[in-house]
Amino acid sequence: MAKLKVDLHDIYSDGFRIETELRKVIEEAVRKRISLVEIIPGKGSGQLKKHVLRFLQLPEIKSQYHRMEKDDKNFGRIFVHFRF
Predict the structure, then answer these.
(1) Which of 2, 44, 64, 65 could disulfide-pair with 34, CB 3.0 to 4.6 Å?
(2) pTM of the entire structure?
(3) Could you tell me which CATH number the domain at 3-77 has?
(4) β-bridge pairing 36-40 and 78-81
């Protein structure tokens, strides 16, 4: 199964850049018909993860993926599943 991965550790304090990277990876997944995107906001305070989860709930984003799953074994990881 093809998978894309985006690690947000290095840009955690730049809200605009975070959303840009997330949009890019979701667009790439749709364009290349990749079924899974792994987003790594890291563990930290949880603020970055909340930002990512809010972003994934935006109607224009949510309409592009099938479901989103928080990794129950690793708090610092989110999976976004696509169905084509």
Answers:
(1) 2
(2) 0.92
(3) 3.30.1370
(4) antiparallel
